[in-house]
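[User] Could I get a sequence and structure tokens?

[Assistant]
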Amino acid sequence: MSKQDAAKVVSAISRILLAFAFVFSQAAWAGQDQKTNDNADSGRNASAPQAAPIQVSPPPAKPESAAAQGPAAEAAARQSAGAEQAPSAGGPHEGIKVHGHWSIEVRNPDGSVVTHREFENSLTPSGPLGLARILSGTMSMGSWQIALSGADADMPCVDVAGGEASCNIVSSTYSPGGSRLPEYFGTLTVTEVEGSLNQVVLNGTATAGKQGDVSHVSTYILLCANTVAPSNCAVGAGLGQYPLTFTNVQSPINVATGQIIAVTVTISFS
């Protein structure tokens, strides 16, 4: 073979190899592109939602608190709570109170003071009922009475038979039994203090009929039917003495026969 023919053969083989290389590279690039596309599709399929319907769960229920329902609901809740706890408008709601301040002084017949004691008392359990009957007009009110009592064997006064009795300070017109009994003293005066104090003041004295002590004190009001005028509400026409205030004296007040027991009871309202 001549050199010229050999050169032609080499040139032809080179062109064939180049063509083969070109075809192979195109196929490789195509495969690579297909793989890349497959990977991209696979990634998209992995992140995309499935074709099946999606079950969406409802949001969790909010707590029934004012904070979870917003400022308006919170304010409404506070207002509702306040309506249950706070008293309605219209003035104080502490109620009407009745106060009884006592001053007891034991004096010798010559006027010298032996004992002076001051303390408070309050309404009896039936006291409010008596006041309600007077204020409503169901009953008519007569005179007041102050009672000073001791233990069973230590009463400071005696009755008509000489037995133990409490000392009772009453108005001058009060005559139980139609006559003045020894345990009743008609020295009671009732005055009203007007103005800012608004007080009712009871004053009176009793003379101890025997040695004893004062350990229980009380006030009474005489009640009559509402058909009886207060000025005519007296013993015999009345329905009885109605207990209004009472208390136990913490330290009994000792008295001797003939000593004078001076009492002031100041009843006030607030």
Residues 3-47 form the longest helix (45 residues). The chain is about 25% helix and 35% strand.
